[in-house]
Design goal:
The complex is a heterodimer.
Chain A: H1 8-23, H2 27-35, H3 42-63, H4 69-77, H5 79-111, H6 118-135, H7 137-162, H8 180-194, H9 199-202, H10 212-238, H11 248-254, E1 257-258, E2 262-263, H12 266-295, H13 305-318, H14 323-365
Antiparallel strand pairs in A: 1-2
Helix pairs in contact in A: 1-7, 1-10, 1-12, 2-8, 3-8, 3-10, 3-14, 4-5, 5-6, 5-12, 5-13, 5-14, 6-12, 6-13, 7-12, 8-14, 10-11, 12-13
Chain B: H1 2-17, E1 29-39, E2 45-52, H2 54-59, E3 77-84, H3 87-95, E4 101-103, E5 109-112, H4 114-119, H5 122-130, E6 139-143, H6 148-152, H7 161-170, H8 179-187, E7 192-201, E8 213-223, E9 226-231, H9 233-242, E10 251-253, E11 262-264, E12 268-278, E13 281-297, H10 306-334, H11 341-348, H12 350-356, H13 360-366, E14 368-379
Parallel strand pairs in B: 1-4, 1-5, 5-6, 6-7, 13-14
Antiparallel strand pairs in B: 1-2, 2-3, 7-8, 8-9, 10-11, 11-13, 12-13
Helix pairs in contact in B: 9-10, 11-12
The chains are: A mainly alpha, B alpha/beta.
């Protein structure tokens, strides 16, 4: 089905924008709503879910190497339940690829291309992603390796340029109302960290399997650090208004002004951000396509790429009526759905698998 | 066949890649350089925009020179205004009077009229923060009377009046408040704001009426989003000391026991505000470290002498102490926490502050302040003894 091989580093590079690209745009504001001045602590708690998810995915993979989650669930919980879970998971990924696409397009339409129809922005992105998904995992891995530095670098330049406007006092008081607010604020980013479960689709194609776990963990750590830095920057620039902004990092980057003429850099920075969104959508798209093909027992996943692309656009357009609902979905539905599908159920699968293996061993020896 | 299809596919996608719907040529834009928002007696909003005329730069300038009767250069901006129930309504009507699309991206000045400020700016601020074009870094002002004349004035030195205000703000003569600051002051803990208050400097005799330029004449004090009072220029300077925004500043002091005054400039200062709660009593400790260089010495003190220098420094210290105390009393008097002290207290004592959150204004009004100034004179310019005095006249001990 997929004959390509990627390195573990490439996997880490693919996963980084998969979480960060959308997490730095809307999530700081949601976190600030609950955690107030402690919003920078939330990614630390949220990352625990990320570490757990990577661990679960890796352990599952160790039990069933060379197979993805769609294939081995049938072995763990039986054919019919396995198929049902597989379907739910594929449905979850296709639907969420749609929602990510919608989030990306809402941001572009809301800030830059005000008059462009949203469907055009979505369709052109999906078209591009479809090409890379058809290209296979190697193409995706190499693209990620190439684009991620291009994506990270401007974000840090942005933060550097903001240094004159940073109000470090805004960080106080630290933990004024105890640890509960930052933990509440961690629930939504936790949903994002859950997306690390996607590595289960990539692990079978690793050339250096042994480093899989380590790279995954490193990627979680990098995401956590990025989110902490972004949240701190946003807090230092916007202070108490952070939670009122829809895209805080965008507002902060608009604040850059050096020597009265070096300003209005946000368009350039955000143009590069699209590269990150591109990798994110591609990874989700790839997982959806590969999963669907495996679920249908096809010999190749390429024929389903185009139909799924159409499904993604339809899901993004039809599932939510307005940008208000997009953010409501991000707060109320997505974290629950994401953690349930990608962390809790896989954890149960892992437990069942371990118990079954042990039982089988037990019967063999007796 | 396949390559033909591929070629068709590629050329078919190109129109979608450039985002053609949002293509706007620069010649189709009316670039707003400053905007004024007023409220008239019928409770309607009047929006005036100062629009930059691009052709004035390319054709005007050197050719016209100083010979024109107006004394200034070519007119580089035009002002249009329109009434409406709110900004967006006025803007849509205004657009019908402008052949080019209004573009806010370069608008760095927003002036609120006095009447609007007194009745509340929140509704109008919402537009400025919500619309994707106006920038958070833009400066915000309140004008005496109507704001529209400020845009109409034709300053002789700068290209347009918006530029005058911006340059003045950059000198830190009055307060500099950006839209982001204003948003933070109103939504944050203090629930009070301060904006620079602008007046028009009347033109000299013989100049046309329009040649008066706007200048910063104090500070408008806001409680919530309504203007409740104002501070004079002198009080504003004290305010700047308390907010640690002192820059390029001149202090004139009168040492004890001698005639005449000593002026120090530039004066630099580091102000540290330390909130304290001692025995349930809320107080403020202000620590100031300030340095100055002598720029004029009208006394007969020889400042090379450590003793006289000491006397001058003492006078300097007393002067600053008095200024800061005055400024603090002034803000207390207005019962509006425009210094954002509530935030400072919250940062240090979050639990205690949350208890008094609802009557913070009263606590603020009764708070005691302790000012501790360390003043030093570091340089004395090119001469050491006071100018024009003989050896005997100089007090040299």
């Amino acid at each position: 089905m997929e004959k390509g091989k990627i390195s573990s580093l490439q996997m880490a590079f693919m996963m980084y924008p998969t979480i960060v690209a959308t997490a730095i745009i809307g999530v700081p504001s949601i976190t600030a709503k609950y955690a107030k001045t402690d919003l920078w602590l939330s990614p630390i708690f949220a990352a625990l879910i990320g570490y757990l998810t990577v661990y679960i995915a890796y352990k599952l993979h160790q039990l069933y190497p060379q197979q993805t989650v769609i294939q081995f669930t049938e072995k763990i919980i039986g054919r019919i339940p396995g198929k049902i879970f597989g379907f739910l998971l594929i449905f979850f990924y296709i639907q969420n690829t749609g929602l990510i696409l919608r989030g990306y397009a809402e941001f572009i339409v809301g800030s830059f291309l005000v008059r462009t129809p949203i469907s055009v922005i979505m369709a052109s992105m999906v078209l591009l992603c479809a090409f890379i998904v058809r290209g296979g995992i190697e193409v995706l891995g190499r693209a990620a390796e190439l684009f991620v530095p291009v994506f990270i670098f401007p974000i840090f330049i942005l933060i550097l340029l903001l240094i004159p406007d940073l109000e470090f006092k805004n960080i106080f008081p630290v933990l004024a109302d105890g640890v509960m607010p930052p933990i509440k604020g961690a629930i939504v980013p936790g949903g994002w960290f859950s997306e690390f479960f996607l590595i289960i689709f990539l692990l079978p194609f690793l050339a250096d399997m042994k480093k899989g776990m380590k790279s995954g963990m490193k990627s979680v750590f990098a995401v956590m650090m990025t989110l902490i830095v972004v949240n701190l920057t946003v807090l230092f620039v916007l202070g108490s208004t952070t939670s009122t902004k829809l895209y805080p990092l965008m507002n902060a980057s608009r604040y850059i002004s050096l020597a009265d003429f070096f300003e209005h850099v946000e368009s350039a920075a955000m143009a590069v951000w699209i590269v990150g969104a591109f990798v994110k959508i591609s990874v989700f798209y790839y997982a959806s396509a590969l999963g669907t093909a495996q679920w249908l027992n096809l010999s190749d996943y390429r024929p389903v790429v185009w139909p799924i692309g159409i499904l993604i656009v339809i899901f993004s357009l039809w599932s939510l009526p307005s940008s208000v609902d997009v953010s409501r979905n991000d707060i109320n539905v997505f974290p629950l759905q994401s953690i349930l599908m990608q962390t809790i159920i896989p954890l149960l699968l892992l437990l069942i698998a371990i118990v079954r293996k042990r039982n089988r061993k037990g019967t063999e020896t007796s | 066949m396949k390559s033909v299809l591929l070629l068709l596919g590629i050329s078919g996608t190109t129109p979608f890649l450039s985002g053609c719907w949002d293509r706007i040529e620069i010649t189709d834009l009316a670039i707003v350089t400053a905007a004024a928002i007023d409220k008239n007696d019928n409770d309607q909003i009047e929006l005036s925009v100062q629009v930059f005329i691009p052709s004035s730069i390319s054709s005007g300038g050197g050719g016209q020179g100083g010979g024109s009767s107006q004394g200034g250069g070519a007119v580089t901006t035009l002002v249009r205004y329109e009434k409406g129930s709110n900004i967006s309504d006025a803007l849509s009507k205004l657009q019908s009077k402008l052949p080019r699309k209004v573009f806010w991206g370069h608008c760095k000045i927003f002036v609120f009229g006095e009447k609007l400020a007194k009745e509340g700016i929140r509704e109008q601020l919402d537009f400025l923060l919500r619309h994707p074009q106006p920038r958070e870094k833009a400066n915000v002002y309140v004008s005496k009377g109507k704001a529209k004349p400020i845009l109409e004035s034709l300053p002789p030195l700068e290209n347009y009046s918006g530029e005058v205000l911006r340059e003045l703000s950059d000198l830190h003569i009055g307060m500099l408040v950006t839209m982001q600051d204003l948003d933070e002051m109103l939504t944050g803990i203090p629930q009070a704001a301060a904006l620079p208050f602008v007046k028009i400097l009347p033109p000299e005799k013989g100049q046309t009426k329009l040649q008066g330029i706007p200048y910063i004449a104090g500070t408008a004090v806001f409680k919530k989003d309504k203007m409740t009072g104002m501070m004079t220029e002198k009080e504003t300077r004290g305010l700047l000391w308390l907010r640690d925004e002192v820059e390029s500043y001149t202090v004139t002091i009168k040492p004890k026991g001698v005639k005449g005054e000593i002026s120090l400039s530039p004066v630099s200062a580091k102000v540290k505000i330390i909130p304290q709660i001692i025995n349930e009593k809320w107080r403020l400790s202000v620590k100031v470290i300030t340095d100055g260089a002598v720029i004029q010495n009208g006394t007969n003190l020889n400042l090379s002498n450590p003793k006289s220098l000491n006397a001058a420094e003492r006078a300097y210290q007393k002067d600053i102490e008095k200024r800061i105390k005055m400024a603090f009393l002034n803000t207390q008097h207005k019962k509006a926490d425009i210094l954002g002290l509530g935030k400072d207290f919250y940062r240090k004592y979050p639990k205690q502050f949350n208890k008094v959150d609802n009557h913070w204004d009263e606590i603020f009004a009764e708070m005691e302040v302790e000012v501790d100034v360390a003043a030093h004179i570091r340089r004395q310019g090119y001469i050491n003894k006071p100018a024009g005095l003989s050896e005997e006249e100089v007090k040299d001990k």
